[in-house]
Amino acid sequence: PPAAPPPQDFSLGDPETRKITATMARLTNALLLGCCCGAAALVAPRGHGRVRLAPRMVAQPPVRSASAPSVWAPNSWTEKEVKQPPKYPDEGAVQDTIDELKGSAPLVFAGEVRDLHEALAKATAGNGFLLMGGDCAESFNEFSVDHVRDTFRVILQQALILTFGGSMPVIKVGRMAGQFAKPRSEPDEVRDGVALPSYRGDNINGEDFTPESRIHDPRRMLRAYHQSAQTLNILRAFATGGYADMSRLHAWNLDFVEKSEQGSQYRALGRQIDESLRF
User: What's the CATH fold of domain 15-56+84-239?
Assistant: First the structure.
């Protein structure tokens, strides 16, 4: 078995370094996004001012069981146990939706998947930090370019702080463009003695507490597909069109923190990074 990971060491030396690190922690909390860091932990080497990221665990390849299929296929999921499957009243509508989706363009392309695989492999070896952020569940009614942009720039801000503090590349993964389903603890929701199917996310049924809204509708998958395609197009435009460039780090501040203490701390950190880039 692998050795137990070493204990985290947060002794940061001089008071100025401790102040910077505390500021980073407050900023990260203020950004209101969770991050996943299973591959690495923040460790500060004694006698050095900068915080670095050191690997805590290297991922082991999964062990394939004898019953596992050797080749993946789009319908491989049908061989698995599904705990909370939708209950569609019209199987013909389900098949029509599947046929239409089969003829649609892929949302993510093979080259993008390969790039992510390579980046994640570096993170498992301790040479990168994985940052994941986004909504618990996306909504049809809340979709807008501004909402996608704001989520994107919050992730950029967190990645900037982690990169500056850890001196390590950050792999940014957005919980976006397809996060429409919600597992529920109970199959039904009861209000004032009336029981209706639980809201399972916009991908399956509606949130309004009416019999019509709570029907599981396969056509909602088509709307989710088209909204996901738009979201990815917006993200690709921002990522490749200059918005994500480090020189625009001061433009990433959200309005609700711009005049706050956290906003001031972020601007101070941004000035430090500007000076480093100019050097």
Answer: TIM Barrel (3.20.20)
